[in-house]
Amino acid sequence: MASHRYTHAIVCRIPLSFKTKALGISEEIDLDKAKQQHEEYCKILRDAGLDVIELPPDENLPNCIFVEDTAVVCNGTALICRPVHAPRQKEVEIIRTIIKKELELPVVEIADPSATIEGGDVLFTGREFFVGLSNRTNEAGARALAAAFPEYPVTPIKIGHTPHIKSLVSVAGPDILCVSEGKESKSVLKRIEQEASFRYQTITVPDDNAANCVYINGTLIYSAEYPESIKVFEERVDYNKVSANVSELRKAHGALTCCSILIKKTKYLKKL
């Protein structure tokens, strides 16, 4: 599907401070292993045909690796997000500069001071947006997204205590959504199906964390840590696929989609 064709990805290397100061750490992080996994992730993006822009690590920003939360880019325009945690605003400033000066894309700023929105709560199917309403993204944030991209339907979906909607549902292919067998994931999918303007196919995996995957340029990137879910992907996916391991990033609520901002530059495509 043309909507899932991309030319660039923004990523950020892992700072030393990620090991002890990242938000939501659940167990000890092996920093060397985390860096290796991130390097392999970036290679997969390059192999999928993306020009990967790697930002240097910032020790003052332990969560800077999770660039997805800072901006939503669609149809050559970037909505600059507003993460709920104030210290992450510096991450937003850096990404804004890269998008405006290096990629030369127009940006949309959020006018409502009460709005909060993180990119991990924005699910774009290629046909419409679903926004997860949580303690990180509110209704004002969803309205800001709708104002930035009026050409697409935008539907708010309330989620529970899961970090982001894309932890529960993600895009796994053209008009295909990936969900897990978990109660919350199924509940969110049901609400999406009730509100959607299009009927999607689904791939259901047994492991909750495996529901987060990345579909770019005809390639599905899925989690390498869950053997039973891997079997499902191998059986159900007949297009190009590759696994990636982000087990160390998961210890700070990380996932596959968290680590990149995907961008399609139309002018760049024409030059190719």
TrEMBL record:
InterPro entries, alphabetized: DDAH-like
Gene3D superfamilies named in the record: L-arginine/glycine Amidinotransferase, Chain A (3.75.10.10)
Domain of life: Eukaryota
Keyword field: Hydrolase
Family: Belongs to the DDAH family.
Name of the molecule in the record: N(G),N(G)-dimethylarginine dimethylaminohydrolase 1-like
